[in-house]
Structures are given as structure tokens and as C-alpha cells.
Design goal:
The complex is a heterodimer. By secondary structure, chain A is of the alpha+beta class. Chain A folds into 3 domains: 125 residues, Butyryl-Coa Dehydrogenase, subunit A, domain 1, CATH 1.10.540.10; 112 residues, Beta Barrel (Butyryl-CoA Dehydrogenase, subunit A, domain 2), CATH 2.40.110.10; 121 residues, Butyryl-CoA Dehydrogenase, subunit A, domain 3 (Up-down Bundle), CATH 1.20.140. Chain A has 12 helices and 10 strands. The radius of gyration of chain A is 23 Å and the shape is globular. Chain B has 12 helices and 10 strands. Helices cover 54% and strands 14% of the residues of chain B. Chain B is of the alpha+beta class. Classes of the chains: A alpha+beta, B alpha+beta. The interface between A and B is large, with 51 and 48 residues. The structure holds flavin-adenine dinucleotide (2 copies). One flavin-adenine dinucleotide (FAD) binds next to β1, β3 and α12 of chain A.
Amino acid sequence: MDFEDTPQEAAFRAEVRSWIDANAPKHLEDQLKRANFGDIGITSEDPIAACKSWQKKKADAGWACLHWPKEYGGGNRTPMERVIWNQEEGLFRALGGLFTIGQGMCGPTVMAWADEEAKRRLLPPLSSGEEVWCQLFSEPASGSDLAGLRTRAVKAEDGSGDWIINGQKIWTSGAQNSDWGLLITRTDADVPKHKGLTMFYLSMHTPGVEVRPIKQANGQSSFNEVYFTDVRIPDAQRLGAVGQGWEVSLTTLMNERLSIGSGMSTGFPSLLSLCMDVEIDGKPAVQDSNVRSKLAQFAVREMGLKYTGMRAITALSKGETPGPENSIGKLVAGATMQDLAMFALDLQGQSGVIWEKDGPSDGRFQAILMRSPATRIEGGSDEILRNIIGERVLGLPGDIRVDKTVAFKDIPTSGRKH
Amino acid sequence: MNLDFSDEQKALKDQVRRFLEDRGGVAQMRAVLTSDASYDKDLYKGLAELGVLGAAIPEEFGGVGLSHLDLCVVAEELGRVIAPVPVASSIYLVAEALLQAGSQAQKQAWLPRLAAGEAIGAFALNEGEGRMGPEKVRASVSGGKLTGTKSPVADGDCADVAVVAAKSDSGKVSLYVVDLNGPGVERRTLNSIDPSRGQAALTFTNAPAELLGGEGDGWHIATQVMDRAAILIAYEQLGGADRALEMARDYALERMAFGRQIGSFQAIKHMLADMYVSATLARSNCYYGAWALASGASELPVAAATARVSASQAFQHCSKNNIQVHGGMGFTFEYDCHLFYRRANALALALGSVSTWEDLLVDRMTAGNAAAAA
Ligand SMILES: Cc1cc2nc3c(=O)[nH]c(=O)nc-3n(C[C@H](O)[C@H](O)[C@H](O)COP(=O)(O)OP(=O)(O)OC[C@H]3O[C@@H](n4cnc5c(N)ncnc54)[C@H](O)[C@@H]3O)c2cc1C
Ligand SMILES: Cc1cc2nc3c(=O)[nH]c(=O)nc-3n(C[C@H](O)[C@H](O)[C@H](O)COP(=O)(O)OP(=O)(O)OC[C@H]3O[C@@H](n4cnc5c(N)ncnc54)[C@H](O)[C@@H]3O)c2cc1C
């Protein structure tokens, strides 16, 4: 056992380090250091432009989407090289957040299901950040139960082969900044719900697409409602066969769990510093036995996540696929962050109520408090993740389903009037 | 980056698993629990012959001269069948104490016999209720003779040699090697929540005692030894946690209620998922511990406390919910659930309680932070 690079890995790391050192937007470093959960913290310039500029620079030098093939704008590197890049990119990695959904989920779906021409058209600008993508899956009546979605796609009556889309998506992160969307629709309501779905991609600038930002509980607006009114999509923008949309969506969802769950941290180092700074009865909080016990509990979770990640990296380094243990990442991180934030506020005492960038601890714990509830919901809720661990990892039987063999149009839903 | 065991170590793990299963697996623990025996002598002898007791003891002292990583995989397998043998006391603690602090003569005298399973060691630190610390050591040595009572001492009922913490002539806490078959030693077997691992009170009255390591270094050496043992015991806990989870999973698949497998109820499914999460975090933390133990990294104290806290909790969590999943059956003596529950709760106290180790973990992390800041 060791934490050392192989000679090849070390050489690659050195190359990456010197390139990043020479090219990273160092003028943003101080702001990025004070970034909070859900807030990249850049105010000196347009944050979107800053993200795009760093991404383009990386792409031009061959450092974007490292594990993708060259012909699609990637770096043709091994998964292990990608891990090394991510480690070395450090603070500047936050500038890639704008592209996570596109590169982490939509890209792999396009790669797996689109024809060659479409891949060569769509993937390079996705890699370089010149075109941003969003994921148009969830709807008001279908989140966890994605296959219950109701946005309709019907063949145009003019014989063009085009599809006409009507309906509504919701919780679409980044839709307001996106050029393209990956859209799942219902094309047949007379068959059971999983069978009548079809996947498309479309330009977000298509007539009839309307994006309305939603104000979130934490005050920001990163997700949106997206309305479709008689939106026309050419049949060439279909991914997979008509009725095969569920299968296509699984490519996206599998990648979603990987990219949301990997390398999550819980904010523990900040909590530890806080415990050394704030006082209880005139002594640093870290000397209080109740505080110590809680700190230890958070520490073993943080380190458990860290070393679970390193076990995955070990597998990659050996050219193997990481095991199922990685499915715990988001489940543990989400709940831990939330508990940790509440504990930190408690230690801050009455000042814990203050949420200011120049206030106590830069408002860091308040930002975690207010953003972490979403971590427990997005990309598979805690309950759905427990089902997945129970069923896929431990082999337990699935839930009994009342809707599996029924035609979609006959399934009762909360939003539908009978 | 390589946070994994080697193929040879994985092969050793398989070999030890087969050996333990061939001998009846958990049934060996039940047999000791329900008899007057303090441990399974045949099994212990078998482990010695297999070379696993001496795995991390150098060849010059009768060991096999493998590494502590090999001992970790052995420990995990012993934990899976909650083996009724004094390996933790004899090997993880006493042999380690001798290796860390013993003179050449002390090593020669005891290590070959410990590795061969011919002698059993016990680590006698604790005195009475409450958290143990150097200030609570009352036992004392005067003119090479030990007087005092150590209780409870794991495997003290069957041990031949003990490493004992006592005050020296000048009142400093030091460690001593005491031959338990010599004069001035009285043993009283104590009942415990896990009778498959004996507990005893050892009373010494002018028992001959030989200094181990420097005078006044006792607590320091004991801490180092316990850090190392904590990682090995964490592997036993990990093995037990995994097995308890598997038992619960198997039962959840087999047991029908309300016309369906109970594993299809989310209350049970989510309970099992949470057990998997605990066991997975513990496993990753144990790997960190194993790395630190084998490489002698300066992070060893942090890694040991992390593995210890994480694995103690995982085993307690998995073993208690294993009973829960089994319903009324889980509360019978006949089912094995309580055997794991007993061992989990006993191991959580070996080497000091979980709260003690939480405290140690924070001490060590903050010391690390202060050092990094300086
Ligand atoms: C910040 C954020 C960003 C998001 N970004 C996107 C995006 O970019 N694109 C996109 O398509 N979607 C996005 N989502 C939507 C997200 O995928 C859904 O919110 C999520 O799948 C849950 O669906 P829901 O909100 O409809 O809740 P519901 O599915 O209605 O769930 C409500 C509650 O019921 C529980 N529940 C539901 N089904 C079960 C079950 N079978 N067993 C047990 N419990 C169950 C859930 O766990 C939850 O606690 C985002 C969400 C958030 C919060
Ligand atoms: C000390 C003791 C004394 C008892 N005394 C009596 C007595 O005097 N008289 C008597 O008649 N009985 C008695 N019982 C039996 C007791 O009522 C049953 O053990 C209990 O009802 C559970 O049933 P079970 O053991 O068959 O477990 P199961 O029903 O098989 O349950 C196994 C596991 O599945 C879970 N489970 C089962 N169904 C569901 C569900 N629908 N949703 C979620 N989880 C579920 C359970 O919670 C449990 O964790 C006693 C039991 C004990 C332990």
C-alpha cells in the first residue's frame, strides 16, 4: 500500500502542474478561496465568462474532457490521468461547475447514442465550454419517478418527420445559460410508462422554448422551469429508437451519480478550525468533551469518504472498474454536510444566525446549511439511493409496483385530474 | 496510488477463510461460549501451524516474517467468524509490545513461544471502572516485585505471560513482563458479555517482574502498542460487521411476512443500506490504518483512532440491526445474531471505550493542525 504515483503518473502530474501554474487565472484565486457552497464567489468579473475562458484555454491545450477521444474534443487520456488532473486543478476546478452536467451526463449520453456526424458536431464545443448543456428530465409530477413524465412529443402532421413538443420541465439546472438540452419525452401513453419514452436533444434557442428561473430556498436561482409550446425538433435529433428513451436515460443517470457523488467533501476542515477559534466557557470549543465527540464523528465520515475515493482511484490506476462502494458518496456527504452546518452554527452561538460574506467564518456554514438540503434531493434522493444500495448492491427485492404493467394513461398521479 | 492489498495478501485471506470455515466457522465461538473452556485450543494451535500467529513476527524470533498487512487480512477473517482465540491479547498486544520495547533476551524468551501458540500473552493495563489513564495506575513494583490488581484483563484467565503497567520504585508508570505461572499471581475468572474471550482479575503479591522498555516510558509505549493493536482489532470488527450485514441480508431475502420478502419493505431495505454505508466507511478507514501501520507513517496515531472509532461503530451498528432484522428469532440463543452482538460490544471496549478514542482522535488531529500551522 502506498499513496505514491507510478513513475508515469508522476511525470504526467509534473507536466499538468507546470501547465496549470503557467496558465491558470491566478487573479481569481483569492475569490475562489472564499467560495461558498452554491456560490462560486466571483464578483470582479462575469463568472460565466470566467468559467468559459478557463475551459477554452484548457481545451485549446488538450486538457478538457481528458478521458474523451481526441476526435470529440477530448484528451484521450486514461481515467487515472483525469484524476491527477482534477487533483492538480485544485481551486480552479470550481470554474468547471458550469459544465458538469453537460460534460458529466449529457456528453456521455450523446457519445453512446448519437450518430457519428452528430457527435463530431456536438461534443467538441461541449468540451471547450463554447456550448453549455442542460438536462431536461424532471417534471412537476415526475422526479424520483422519472418514467412518469408527461411532456409529449408527437409527429408533425406535415409529413416532415419532425416532432412537436409540448409540456413542462422543472428543476433544470443551468437552463438559463444553456445552448443545448437533453430532453426526455413521452411519445406513447398507451403502453406502460417505461416503454413510451423517447430521448431528443435540442437547441435551447429553438422557438417555443421558454426558460423561467426559479428562486431557490437559499436565495439563488440556479435551477429553472422550462416550458415547451409547439417546439419543433427534427427527427435527426432523436437519440436511440422511438420508445427507447428509458434505456437512453439510464446512461445519463448512471453518469450523474458518478459525477455528483465523486470526491465530495463535507466541510470538515472548516469545522475543525472553527472549534479551535470559538470558545466555550473561556476555553477553545475543541476542549469541550461534547464538541470532541461530535468532531470525531464528523472526522471519521470525512475520512471514510476520502479513503473510499482513494480505493476507487486505486482501481482506476490498476485499469479496473471501481466497486459499488462508491454509491455511498452523495448519501453520506449530503447528510453529513447538513448536520455539520447545524453543529457549526450552534458553536457560533447567537452569531450563527448571521450570514455575511464578511461575517463569522465568511458565512461558510450558513451557505452549507442553506444549500445542503438540495444535495439530499438532486441526482437521486437519499431514499432512492438507499433503494439502489439495497437492491443493486445487496441484492434485495425491488419495491412492489402498482404501475409497472399499466398503460401510462391509466396511472393515477397527484397532479392529474380524473 | 495503491490503497489495496496485494494478490498474495488476498490469497492468504482466502486461505485463512477456508481454514476457519472448514473448522466450523462461527460454531467454534458458540462451543467456547457454552463450555468452560476459555478459548479454542485446537483452533489456536491450527492457526499457529498455519503460520498466521507469527505472520508479523520476524523469523529470528520464530515468526514468519511477513508484514502487518498480512496480519490485517488474517484479523479480518478471524473477525468474520468471531474466532474464540486470544490472538488480540497475545499477538496484537503482547508480541507487539515485545517487538516495540523488548530487550533481545525478552524477545528471545517469549516471541517464539507466542508465535507457536505455546504461550499466551495478556496485556494488563486497566484497573477498575471508568476511563483508564496513567494517573489511575496503582499497581507498583518494588525491588523487582509487583503488587496490585489488574482488572479486567482480557485472556488473563488463560495467559502465561503478561505485560503489566505499574509504578516503578521511583513512582513512574512503566511496563513489566510477568510470568503468570510464577509465584505471587492469583487469577479470578470474571463473567462477561462475551465469554468466548476470557476476562480475569489478576492479583499480584510480590510477583517477580522484569522492566520492559525504559523506566517511566510505560504509558508512552502502551499508547504506541495500543495504536497498532487498534488497527488490527478494527480489522476484526470490520470482518464481524460484514458478516452481520450478510446474515441480515440473507434473512431479509428468506423471511416472508405480509405475503412478501421482508427485504422488500423499505424499513428493512434502508436499514440494510445504512449498515452497508457504515461498513464501507469503516473499511476505507481501515485501509488507511493498514497503510499507516505497515509504512510506519507519522499519521499512524490519527489513522489508528480513525479506524478504531469507525470500525467499532460499524460492528455495533451492523450487529444490533442484524438482531432487529431477524425479529423474535434474533433474540434466541439458538441463532447466531447475539454472538456477533456480544463480540461487537466487547471489542468496542477493548483498548478503551469508543469515547476515549474519539478524544484521542481529536487530540491528534488538532496537534497535527497546530504542527502544520507552526
Ligand atoms: C438543486 C437541484 C438541481 C436539480 N437539477 C436538475 C436538473 O438539472 N435536471 C433535472 O432533470 N432535474 C434536476 N433536479 C431534480 C431532481 O432530480 C429531483 O428533484 C429529484 O429526482 C427528486 O424528485 P422530486 O423533486 O420530484 O421529488 P419526489 O420524487 O416527489 O420525492 C419526494 C420525496 O419522496 C421520496 N420518494 C419518492 N419516491 C420514493 C420511493 N420510491 N421510495 C421512497 N421514497 C421515495 C423522495 O425521496 C423525497 O423525499 C434538481 C433538483 C435539485 C434540488
Ligand atoms: C422477548 C419477546 C417476547 C415475546 N412474547 C410474546 C408473547 O408473549 N406472545 C406472542 O404471541 N408473541 C410474543 N413475541 C413475539 C413477537 O410479537 C414477534 O417476535 C414480533 O411480532 C415480530 O415477529 P417475528 O419475530 O416473526 O419477526 P418478523 O415479523 O419476521 O420480522 C422480521 C423483521 O422484519 C420487519 N418487518 C416485518 N414486517 C414488516 C413490515 N410490514 N414493514 C417493515 N418491516 C417489517 C420487522 O420489524 C423485523 O425487523 C415475543 C417476542 C419477543 C422477542
